[in-house]
Amino acid sequence: MAAEGLQLQWQWEQEGRGATPVLDTTQGPRKMGFTGGSRRNEVLVTQLRLGHCALGAGLWVCALAKGSSSTAMAKFQIRRYRDEDQEAVKETFTLAMSEHVPSAFLHMLRQPLVQGTLACLFCALLATSGSVLLPVLAVTLVLAGARQLVDYSFARYIEACRRRDLDRVREAYMEGTDSCFWVAESDGLVVGTVACLPSRKHTGRECLELKRMAVRRSHRGLGIAKSLCRAVAEFAREKGYRQVLLYASVVQADAQKLYEGVGYRRVGESVVPETLAKLVNFTLIEYRYTLMEGGG
């Protein structure tokens, strides 16, 4: 291995007999000093430029490997849900969904209706009061209230998911023949979840719906979500389904990239049927994955 232009700085403090090499960690991995003896005679600093140095390149690789995150080396397994996973499953899903609150709030602020309302409020208060302070305070209070409303909406959605199936995962997913729930486990900790069941929008074995996809932030980037998607696809194929469908909200940008990266196609988009969602144009994007067996 060649390390073109690699520079190593050596500092040699000649102090009589017994000089010993000491690594100077305060200057990074590029500086090494020699100390020893009872008195200092001279300091010799040389610059060595190594055009092709396999040893030097190897040292840098080792240093980078030691500095890498231990999480990146974490191993995981995908397995079916067990009853003792219930609390960890609910916690993982809650944390993953709560992360979307800031992006949902920003999405709301980008909507023309919201921007126009805030602008009208500011101008009206400025015209009537003649002071800039009052409209600024009013808009600030409105924004704070809007953020709390977004928090409340997500908390209500999470609670609804718990009541619907997460409080009774075995009954909702594990007792049926065409439904299942998986978890990703790393070092004994549940770090990801996914589920599937027959789609209510389709009859027969047309579509299986992927639900409850969640991965803890500390374990993202390891391929866990892709493995969970594959588990659902393999299950659907074994059961004879033609497609897997799922829904991702407009603010789940990372999830959209994930699904498109593993082969899902965007087939539609619809507004969530709630008053607040309609006002801020909060939409759900429908994705479908066509299995290789069973046609199109």
Question: What's the short story on this structure?
Answer:
InterPro entries: Acyl_CoA_acyltransferase (IPR016181), GNAT_dom (IPR000182), NAT_camello-type (IPR050769). With 296 residues, this protein is of the alpha+beta class.
Give the tally of structural domains: 2
CATH class category name of the largest domain: Alpha Beta
Percent range for β-strand residues: 25-35%
Distance between the termini: 49 Å
The coarse overall form would be elongated
Oligomer: single chain
Gyration radius from CA atoms, angstroms: 29 Å
User: Which structural class do you get from the secondary structure elements?
Assistant: alpha+beta
Order of helices and strands: EEEEHEHHHHHEEEHEHEHE
Could you name the ranges where pLDDT drops below 50 across 5 or more consecutive residues? 1-72
Widest beta sheet: strand line-up: 5-6-7-8-9-11-10
Task: State the main characteristics.
single chain; 296 residues; alpha+beta; Aminopeptidase; seven-stranded mixed β-sheet; four-stranded mixed β-sheet; disordered N terminus
Structure write-up:
α2 (86-98) runs antiparallel to α5 (133-164) and α3 (101-109) crosses α5 (133-164). This protein has 296 residues and is α+β, with helices and mostly antiparallel strands. Mean pLDDT is 79; it is low at 1-72. The protein has helices spanning 54-67, 86-98, 101-109, 112-129, 133-164, 169-174, 224-238, 253-261, 275-279, and strands at 6-14, 20-23, 31-35, 42-50, 77-80, 180-186, 189-198, 207-215, 243-249, 265-271, 283-290.
